[in-house]
């Protein structure tokens, strides 16, 4: 009985509020969506080859990242996931870049990063570090500058080896400075793996591009953001209905689907940068991304081409083994509730890396046939068809060849981005 008496009173109160609240006009207002965290930029971290470790002490590393989706609040993910000792962060700042080149910041947008309310942090070996949210209006397609000060002698054990973006090292804590005087430059990202934004766009989500050097951006122009995932992000921003899709580049140069780096003699100086195998890093690099709703996979050419070169011949794999690896990615993505797409493997006849043989081409053809015909992925983007030479389909089109017969140039990257169906993300 008590409940029955309360219902008319509650209805009366709602009626009165509808009359007296300005702008209500007696009409229910749609609820404003709660802000959601969505990845706007990411990279796959790796360890560092022996002899290539950069050591910083009382220095600031200032690095530039290119956002895909915009928002009004940002979070930065730092990482010591491959470090062997604790990482002490003395200070860290984020700001929008001033202009389109260099590492100068717009000082009005400079924000200190905190971690649990503190401006300093100690990160154990093997751990990431997520910053507190920072109010900062970031436009879609804008550039951020992230500055990290390391007060103690620190061998940097976690990097992304090929940023195709020039970053700088400066002496002292200059994390808040408008401009810095570099003592060194580096085309790597140090101790950094992601940036996410808070957005009220009701259907905002992220697309993870998961692959090897072709996804990573080799060998595109430094600082131009001409990697195919960047160019895909630009297409999405320009297209109604899919503008609120972030694109995250989780390509790692040299990465294989099925094997960790295991260099042959002479290849030790760079193989550690190739990252752990795709099956091992998929959960961290794709499924754990904020707001991820879909993935595009382009992996397998290094599994075919590396054995007998930078990897031992004993690690040769069959097309069936590569396909089994892809099926694992499909199963794990679907179990996590995200859509997963794949790209066909690009042609590589005449490459300068020694990947091409008739046997290796047969493996590529078998994997591509399965991709095109099996229907097991949620969709296929035919990168092979987009960049191959019509006069010799086993080779890259000359206008798209970077010069090594394996990696597309900037124009080839644009052709790849143009081949991705945007209706997947509506």
SSE order and pairing:
Layout: H1 2-20, E1 36-42, E2 55-56, E3 59-66, E4 71-79, E5 87-89, E6 91-96, E7 111-112, E8 121-123, E9 128-130, E10 134-138, E11 143-150, E12 154-155, E13 159-160, E14 167-171, E15 182-186, E16 189-190, E17 192-199, E18 205-211, H2 213-216, H3 228-237, E19 245-251, H4 268-271, H5 278-287, E20 292-298, H6 301-305, H7 319-335, E21 339-343, H8 358-373, E22 380-381, H9 383-387, E23 388-389, E24 392-396, H10 410-419
Helix pairs in contact: 3-10, 5-7, 7-8
Pfam families: Lipase_GDSL_2
Protein name: Lysophospholipase L1-like esterase
Domain SGNH hydrolase-type esterase: 209-415
* CATH homologous superfamily descriptor of the largest domain: SGNH hydrolase
What is the correct CATH architecture of the largest domain? 3-Layer(aba) Sandwich
Which bin fits the share of residues in helices? 10-25%
Helix/strand/pairing class, anyone?
Answer: alpha+beta
Number of domains: 2
Q: Using the coordinates above, name the CATH class of the largest domain.
A: Alpha Beta
The shape is: globular
Q: How many helices?
A: 10
Radius of gyration: 24 Å
Say what the CATH topology of the largest domain is: Rossmann fold
- Cα distance, first to last residue? 49 Å
Strand order across the largest sheet: 7-6-11-3-14-15
How many β-strand stretches?
24
Which regions are unreliable across 5 or more consecutive residues at pLDDT < 50? 1-30
Largest sheet: 6 strands, antiparallel
pLDDT average, as an integer? 92
Q: Proportion of β residues?
A: 25-35%
């Amino acid at each position: 009985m008590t409940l029955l008496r309360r219902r008319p009173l509650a209805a009366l109160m709602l009626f009165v509020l509808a009359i007296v609240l300005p702008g209500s006009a007696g009409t229910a207002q749609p609820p404003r969506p709660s802000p959601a965290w969505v990845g706007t930029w990411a990279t796959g971290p790796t360890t560092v080859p022996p002899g290539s470790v950069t050591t910083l002490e009382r220095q600031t590393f200032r690095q530039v990242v290119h956002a895909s989706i915009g928002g009004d609040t940002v979070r930065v993910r730092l990482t010591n996931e491959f470090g062997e000792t604790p990482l002490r962060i003395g200070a860290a700042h984020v700001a929008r870049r001033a202009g389109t080149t260099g590492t100068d910041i717009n000082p009005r947008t400079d924000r200190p990063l905190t971690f649990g309310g503190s401006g300093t942090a100690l990160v154990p070996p093997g751990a990431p570090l997520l910053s507190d949210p920072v109010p900062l209006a970031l436009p879609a397609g804008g550039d951020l500058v992230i500055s990290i000060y390391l007060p103690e002698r620190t061998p940097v054990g976690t990097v992304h080896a090929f940023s195709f973006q020039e970053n700088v090292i400066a002496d002292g804590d200059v994390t808040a400075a408008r401009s810095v005087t570099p003592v060194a430059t580096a085309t790597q990202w140090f101790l950094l793996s992601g940036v996410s934004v808070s957005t009220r766009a009701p259907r905002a989500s992220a697309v993870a591009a998961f692959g090897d050097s072709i996804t990573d951006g080799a060998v595109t122009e430094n600082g131009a953001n001409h990697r195919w995932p960047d160019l895909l992000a630009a297409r999405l921003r320009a297209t109604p209905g899919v503008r609120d899709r972030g694109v995250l580049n989780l390509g790692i140069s040299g990465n294989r689907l099925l094997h960790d780096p295991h260099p042959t003699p002479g290849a030790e100086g760079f193989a550690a940068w190739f990252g752990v195998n795709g099956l091992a890093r998929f959960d961290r690099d794709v499924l754990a991304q904020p707001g991820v709703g879909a993935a595009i996979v382009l992996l397998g050419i290094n599994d075919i081409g590396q054995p007998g070169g930078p990897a031992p011949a004993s690690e040769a794999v069959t097309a069936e083994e590569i396909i089994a690896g892809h099926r694992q990615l499909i199963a794990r993505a679907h179990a996590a509730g995200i859509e997963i797409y794949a790209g066909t493997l690009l042609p590589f006849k005449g490459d300068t890396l020694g990947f091409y043989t008739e046997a290796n081409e047969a493996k590529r053809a078998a994997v591509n046939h399965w991709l095109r015909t099996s229907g097991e992925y949620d969709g296929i983007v035919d990168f092979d068809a987009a960049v191959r030479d019509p006069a010799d389909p086993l080779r890259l089109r000359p206008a798209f060849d970077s010069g090594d017969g394996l990696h597309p140039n900037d124009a080839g990257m644009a052709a790849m981005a143009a081949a991705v169906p945007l209706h997947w993300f509506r």
